[in-house]
Input
Amino acid sequence: MTCADSVSLQESFPPVGGLTAATLNAGLHALLARDKRPVHYYSLTELPLTDRGKINRRIFLEWILINDSRLRRLR
Output
C-alpha cells in the first residue's frame, strides 16, 4: 500500500486527545442496540482505500492483525 492508496486524516481531524472507547460507546448508547455497537474502536492516521475510493476492509483488517502504526486501539 502506498500513500497514493490512502487518504490522510490528520489534516481533517484534531488529535485523539481525550477520546476513549467508553465515550464513543456512551454516545452510541442511545442510538444503537447493545449488540449493534462496535466491540473495539480505532484511531487511524489514514484510511486504506480501494482504487475506487472505498475503504479497503481487507487492508484494514491486516493492519489490525499486524498492529500497524497507522492505527491505535482506543481503550
Notes: Residues 3-74 form one domain.
